[in-house]
Design goal:
It comes from Capnocytophaga haemolytica. This protein is of the alpha/beta class and 218 residues long. It is built from eight helices and eleven strands.
Length: 218
């Protein structure tokens, strides 16, 4: 109880796990809640959950609730899955993909994602999975990071082309990006400009003061 009270003053580390993909994964108690962090950013159940929930609300909670097949690339601790199943009450199939086996183990052991009946968890590289998978999705959430960095492939036109092929008619891809520096802004502007040649694009800027959400609509 004391640790929980103190966590409203400052985050309290509960456990740290070394990962070949994510560096040090920290399980912290923050404002009375368990969150997953890496060295420089929140990975699950903190600001990230609020950011992606705003993205889902922008798409439309009623629309998302009725979706039959959703793909999450970059599952981490699975806070977006909790938003989908508990807040939006989505009962369709959700496939969560993460390259980091340590992250997946934590998501099951601490956050009990394996108890969510409509969730399938796959340990795989996001690019390779998307390229080899033949399923069709109404929504693809791309939340792929290495600590606070976006791997270069994520915002390349070749990856967007693959994901657009995986969408159903009128489907949507939601990209979560950190956009703080001038370099980040130029990177996103280039991606948005290229994407407009392929599909309809919308953005939500300055989400939580740090992130830009990019929506691609087929």
């Amino acid at each position: 109880m004391l640790r929980k009270l103190l966590s409203y003053l400052f985050p309290i580390n509960i456990e740290t796990v070394d990962s070949a993909f994510s560096g040090k994964i920290e399980l912290n108690l923050h404002r009375g809640k368990l969150v997953l962090d890496t060295a420089h950013t929140n990975y699950s159940y903190g600001s990230l959950q609020r950011i992606l929930l705003r993205g889902l609300q922008q798409i439309g909670t009623d629309r998302v609730r009725m979706m039959d097949n959703i793909l999450v690339l970059g599952l981490a601790g699975g806070s977006v899955v909790r938003s989908l199943t508990e807040e939006i009450r989505c009962r369709g199939k959700i496939t969560g993909v993460d390259i980091d086996p340590e992250m997946i183990l934590l998501s099951k052991r601490v956050f009990h994602l394996d108890e969510i009946e409509n969730l399938q968890i796959i340990c795989a590289d996001a690019y390779r999975f998307a390229k080899e998978d033949k399923s069709r999705y109404e929504l693809i959430i791309v939340d792929v990071f290495q600590d606070d960095k976006i791997p270069p492939f994520v915002l390349r036109r070749s990856f967007s082309n693959i994901l657009l092929q995986r969408l159903t008619r009128k489907g949507c891809i939601l990209f979560n990006t950190i956009c703080i520096s001038q370099e980040d802004r130029l990177r996103n502007e280039k991606f948005i400009e290229q994407s407009r040649l392929l599909c309809h694009v919308k953005t939500m800027d300055d989400v939580n003061g740090t992130n830009q959400l990019i929506f691609l609509y087929k």
